[in-house]
Amino acid sequence: MLALRLTRGAHPAVQLRRLLVAAASAGTGFLLLCTLGYAVSHPDAGSGPLLRLAWCATPLAATVYFAVAVARTDPATSPRPGLSAIGLGPTRLMAFSATTTALACTLGSMLALLFFLHLRGDLTGMPFDGAAAEFLAADSPLPLPAALTLLSLTPVIASLSVALTLRPRDDRPTPPGTRRAFGRFGAYGSGTARETFGAYGRFGARLRVPARPGRGGTPQAQAGEPRPQADTAPHPDTGIPAPTQGDAQPGLPPDTLPAPPTAPPKGLPWGIAVLAAGLAVEAYATRSGTTPTTPLPGGLATGTPAVLIGWLLTATGLALAGPGLTHLCGRLLQTARPGALRLLAGRVLMTESTRVGRPLGVVCAVASGAYAMTALDGPDGAEFGPLTTLGLLLVTGCTLATLLTAAVEAKHARADTTQALLRLGAPAAMLRGAAAVRAGALLALFGPLTLVVAELAALPLAR
């Protein structure tokens, strides 16, 4: 009930993103139901229905990826002061986000079922009744348990992915050389001093109560012992002790301080390695002509399993290398004596490389794959069927929507910095210019990279 109330009272932009998730879920559910209809109408097709079901995994993954991005940018699930007091802690907010995602995906699956039954001719009274009756096997009964099982894949996988992504984490840094231990009576902590057996119950062990401030000080001060001096330095004007340089984060050694937000991501070497492996597999598939062919659904030509594996590795490599390439792009913007505009644009790219770089890498992978698929039937172009066109539109739309959602999330994350710059007197035109410089730099780096990878991926199919 709480999830329904918070969903109904959300901002219109948030509602629009949830409706887009429902639309993506509807498209994926319709593709799954069409696969079921093909299996019912072709009982002797062998592995054809399984191959079509395997190709539906790509739209399903794109829909789940978009649903997770929308759940991360939902302002209703962001922790705010006072929510824990009424029982809405991080765990409850995570459960609410997963429930909202499940509701949106379930709505889309139900719409897909209604549209599928309408095109089969099972539902009458609306235009285009039974328009695709022959294609969707209207003469054969539809197995309802199988249909409901396929339709439940998107809500279940999306909600579990959201719960796994938004699960509460302990982001506090742990100093090296210390380990978490259980103290007396199961008290959780990281104490360094170990107590011997019976130390807690020893007579008088807990009778040394420190004196209150202002009434004689501590027992050591009452006994005449010198007080330990704090590592502070007097302020030159007011005489108020100011912390020294080593007191930025008390209790942590300097070498255990958290890394700055501009630290380079660690996925760039792995992404380049996986991308090179995918291209090598595709090159091997070009030279070896003895590999058995695998038919592709939707009216496309045949391809080898090695080519499909190479495409998968290439897409994975681009997705892994996206954050590192974005960070590198921001660092290149700040080279050769940069001004305020390039310095601001490069610093923002370096800070938001993980948030924006991975969706950008996925978009490049999808664009290169779509370009490579046009070479499946030679120079005359590919003859895409309606289901293949729907799948391409679904995957492309979900990846582009995920990239735009990540950009909106990054804009909200740096809202405080933007307001601080405006208060300091920075003109709004400079902020818009920095955004244009960031977009141009990313396009200049990822555009040629996408074209090169697409040409190399289409090379095995053009021969």
Question: Outline of this structure?
Answer:
The protein is mainly alpha-helical and 463 residues long. It has helices at 2-8, 12-41, 48-55, 57-72, 90-120, 144-151, 153-165, 219-222, 268-287, 305-333, 340-351, 353-373, 386-413, 415-423, 428-462; strands at residues 181-182, 188-189, 232-234, 241-243, 294-295, 302-303.
Instruction: Kindly provide the radius of gyration, computed on alpha-carbon positions and rounded to a whole number of angstroms.
Output: 30 Å
N to C succession of SSEs? HHHHHHHEEHEEHEEHHHHHH
Query: What ranges have pLDDT less than 50 throughout 5 or more consecutive residues?
Result: 181-193, 214-260
Shape: globular
**Strand fraction:** under 5%
Mean pLDDT across all amino acids: 75
Number of helices: 15
- Give the beta-strand count: 6
Residue share in helix: 55-70%
Q: What structural class do helix, strand and pairing data support?
A: mainly alpha
Largest sheet: 2 strands, antiparallel
Counted up, domains total 2
Trace the largest sheet across and list its strands.
1-2
- End-to-end Cα distance, whole Å, is 59 Å
